[in-house]
Amino acid sequence: MENRILLTHGSGGKLAHELVEKSFVKALANPLLAKLDDSAVFDLSGKLAFTTDSHVVSPIFYPGGDIGKLAVCGTVNDLAMSGAKPLYLSLAFIIEEGLLQDELDKIVNSIQKATKEAEVEIVTGDTKVVNRGSADKLFINTAGVGIIPQGVNISGSNARPGDKVILSGTIGEHGIAVLSQRQGLSFSTQLESDLAPLGSLVADMLAVSHNIHCLRDPTRGGLATILNELAEQSKVSIRINEEKIPVREEVLAACEMLGLDPLYIANEGKLVAIVPALDATKVLKAMRGNHYGKSAAVIGEVRAENPGRVIMKTSLGTSRIIDMLVGDPLPRIC
Amino acid sequence: MCLAIPVLIKSIEDKEAEVEIGGITRRISLQLTPEAKVGDYAIIHTGYAINILDQEGAEETLKLLEEIAETAEEGE
Amino acid sequence: MRFITEFRRPELAEGLISQIHHKSKTAVRLMEFCGGHTVTIFRYGIRQALPKTLEMVSGPGCPVCVTANADLDKAIALSQIPDVIITTFGDMLKVPGSYSSLQEAKASGADVRVVYSTMDALKIAEENPDKSVVFLGIGFETTAPTIAASILMAQDKGIQNYHVLSLHKLCPPAIRAILDCGEVRLQGLICPGHVSVIIGSHPWESVARDYNIPCVISGFEPLDILQCISMLVAQVEKGESRVEIAYRRGVHPEGNREALKIMEQVFEPCPAQWRGMGEIPGSGLKLRGKYRHFDAELVFSIVPEPACEPEGCICGDILRGVKTPTDCLLFGKVCTPEHPVGPCMVSSEGSCSAYYLYGGSFGE
User: Fold this and answer.
1) Shared-domain flag, residues A179 and A259
2) For C189-242, what is each residue's pLDDT tens digit?
3) Percentages (nearest 5) of helix, strand, coil residues in chain B
4) CATH of the domain at A88
5) Does A249 touch chain B (CB under 8 A)?
6) Is there a contact between A186 and B26 if contact means CB atoms under 8 Å apart?
7) ipTM rounded to 2 decimals
8) A119, A208, A215, C257: most buried, per Cβ within 10 A?
9) How far apart are CA C68 and CA B37, in angstroms?
């Protein structure tokens, strides 16, 4: 019989200890975690960044990623978007009883790989098991801390007129890869999620310029939504050029088929940087030198007029307003 | 209304076809276009081919539009 | 992407735009009937590129927007029946009925599933033999044959638990209704492209003749729309009123005969309620008696509460082209895409949503 996670695995008793020891501590081994005290204790000094994110995705495995890697990358990227070097993560599972032990192992394994690549450690964690139907297979929450290098001041409210807007690569792959697996929508594609930890990309960028004004990862809501957030926070307008935005053909095709707009599709391994025009060239070069920024491009600039608006020059040379995402991007027929 | 796009028919099996657009594939129904052949471009709407695209017609339209663009340029 | 990207080439668009500017002398009002056209026009900022002589108004060509509250209420009532799975195109989920929406019904426990195709709905029916699967049949002549095909397929395969709530609408009667009421004076019609893929160009001929109005069928790429406008302008300037096709690659004058045959086999015309326009005779489709066991309305006896319309909403006037979204007191204040009051704000093809999201004529 296949091994499944049972309610007792979350009860704090013997089975629970076994699960923690065998499934988690062994795979994610590091001295801080191995202590198994009530909290992780460590020294840190400097300006800290601290963030948390809960991860729910259906299905939990999809081309190019899974919920485990997502839980690590999501939090690592949130830290990196403040300019921080991500260091330590917490990891909390909410498991629906009946989850296959094999699936859990696969996810923990994927978490391990992701932490290694992102050069972070899981230092504390928690597991709860809930009744069937009370969760969708598995939810993961991660929180993380990182250190912000001296002289770095990155915030969504720092964009200034004249700044350049740089996008680190093609958009929409994560959302489309996940959508391709949904029941009732099944289409096949070689496309994989772009899921990736962006700590090293940000480090490479900061190595050439400490003047980066804003960083943000266009996750849910896509590029359009975060550009709107930045325009609103900084009280500026952002002008982008449709033709400069890199999109893979598969993403365009899937969007045509489902009636979606790539600008609103989620990414998990991309970032937008707003940088002073003077530093744009060197930041762009640094990005292109990193594996996760190979197809980085300047897609637009910051302006003073029409604060709060994002305006796109269309391929026909006309302009239109780009608003935030409203609701879920649902496939439509009309 | 009525989102529909042209896709290439790669293979046909019974009343269904495997179609491709920009690197993604999907099965569609040919119930409404029994005349469909492999290599045709079908216009699909909600998973059904609703017509076979007239490739010659498309080329001719584009040729006409190119002529219009050339005339417009000369006129300027 | 073949046959898509070619029809977005900027240099060809420029040629057409300059041709339109050159030809257009008379001030005219053109209606794009179809919501898909409205979206292309806004998405590519086409209004900004047109000469001042041309005024574009949007028509009622969005199946979601024209679905009457009473019909939506039926769908929601069906979702409340135990062991019923509602399958629907994503478009319908957020549309508010009189009292609630399918999205809200889902949140309170109804089994509502979004599908891309009726084929997916059939599959759900096969996989859930102990439940009833109801497909919400919305759409115009483009969609109706695909739903007719699914009913024939269900019959072929002996799938007993598949039912359709037929809320289909037909386009030519609605266009006639708009022209008949004469509230909005139009000098040209951009006719729906994918509807015409099915019905062909002939049904528009009597419209052009009876109302002395140029009718040009357009595709959905920016070049299609621009070519269509250019052809309409040429007719206007010459005083003609003919049917022309600016979507040759998709539309044959006689339409898709097989699709028409299947549609006719399964459905028969009936009167239908259009939001904002009331009942239009012969503008709906219902299942023929032979297929009554697939008809959700007959199989399940549902008696929804009497329908009511949201106060202050002028979607009806907007659908008829009499008013624009900015004339509405609710627009952008009470009624936004996050909190839609009327259907024109819900549907991504609705005029209000297009005005709101794409900023109307912004960008000059």
Assistant:
1) yes
2) 999 999 999 999 999 999 999 999 999 999 999 999 999 999 999 999 999 999
3) 30, 40, 30
4) 3.30.1330.10
5) yes
6) yes
7) 0.94
8) A215
9) 40
